[in-house]
């Protein structure tokens, strides 16, 4: 039986650290916490860490500077999820450009963060040996590429379509579970972290809007298919890469 994944939560708010540690440990993860840069480096030096949850706003050395230092050192391959205030788009883009694997805006639910942790760990383990320090910023599927940093869809013809938070969350979740059936309940959990008013019937509407973004045929969609009485499936092969030019076959 493999040991549990070790997650390092870095946040200066003691209540957030306590809550996240409690919730993640209940899901079978091992959790360490740090309030600032000195504790952050101490944990990394003590034992291997599988993923870091890093708040942008920290006293002293902030999260972006810590990420930059991390990517230059011996722990460069450790995946990082940034926690940001909802309006901090500049910090989000800077963080992702510097090598963050994902970001979660505050406020968020522990379930949403858990979903993102699992998705980032899956992607990190897809990297070939010796390339672990590369960040998987792009998801290529069919004629489309999702840019995680810019949160936009790029068509093979060059058209760029920005996505709002709900659209990005839905598509990213489907891509993380490509060619697997995801239930409405799973989508509710994922989207509820971004929209407190999400409800079961709205899932169908959101999927319909996403299909329009992808140019899916209404009667025979080629990307997001409905599985009767179960949910939905992203029916294309997905290639995660650090290169915007690489694509899977259409």
TrEMBL record:
Keywords of this entry: DNA-binding, Phosphoprotein, Transcription, Transcription regulation, Two-component regulatory system
PROSITE patterns the UniProt entry points to: OMPR_PHOB (PS51755), RESPONSE_REGULATORY (PS50110)
Domain OmpR/PhoB-type, chain residue ranges per copy: 136-236
DNA-binding region, residue intervals: 136-236
Modification 4-aspartylphosphate, positions: 55
Domain Response regulatory: 6-121
Classification via InterPro entries: CheY-like_superfamily, OmpR/PhoB-type_DNA-bd, Sig_transdc_resp-reg_C-effctor, Sig_transdc_resp-reg_receiver, WalR-like, WH-like_DNA-bd_sf
An MF annotation (GO) of this entry: DNA binding
PANTHER family linked to this entry: DNA-BINDING DUAL TRANSCRIPTIONAL REGULATOR OMPR (PTHR48111:SF4), REGULATOR OF RPOS (PTHR48111)
Name by which UniProt lists this protein: DNA-binding response regulator
């Amino acid at each position: 039986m493999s040991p549990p994944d070790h997650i390092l939560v870095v946040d200066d708010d003691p209540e957030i650290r306590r809550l996240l540690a409690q919730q993640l440990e209940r899901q079978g993860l091992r959790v360490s916490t740090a309030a600032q840069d000195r504790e952050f480096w101490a944990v990394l030096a003590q034992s291997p860490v599988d993923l870091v949850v890093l708040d942008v706003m920290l006293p002293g050395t902030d999260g972006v500077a810590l990420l930059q230092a991390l990517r230059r050192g011996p722990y460069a391959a450790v995946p990082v999820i940034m926690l940001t205030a909802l309006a901090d788009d500049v910090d989000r883009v800077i963080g992702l450009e510097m090598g963050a694997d994902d970001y979660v805006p505050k406020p968020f639910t522990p379930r949403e963060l858990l979903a993102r942790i699992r998705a980032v760990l899956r992607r990190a383990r897809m990297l070939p040996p010796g390339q672990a320090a590369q960040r998987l910023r792009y998801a290529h599927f069919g004629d489309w590429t999702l840019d995680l940093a810019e949160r936009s869809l790029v068509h093979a013809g060059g058209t760029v379509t920005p996505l709002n938070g709900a659209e990005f969350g839905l598509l990213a979740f489907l891509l993380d579970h490509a060619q697997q059936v995801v239930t409405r309940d799973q989508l509710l959990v994922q989207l509820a972290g971004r929209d407190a008013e999400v409800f079961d019937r709205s899932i169908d509407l959101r999927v319909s809007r996403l299909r329009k973004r992808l140019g899916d045929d209404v009667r025979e969609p080629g990307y997001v298919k409905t599985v009767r009485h179960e949910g939905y499936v992203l029916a294309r092969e997905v290639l995660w890469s650090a290169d915007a030019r690489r694509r899977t076959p259409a």
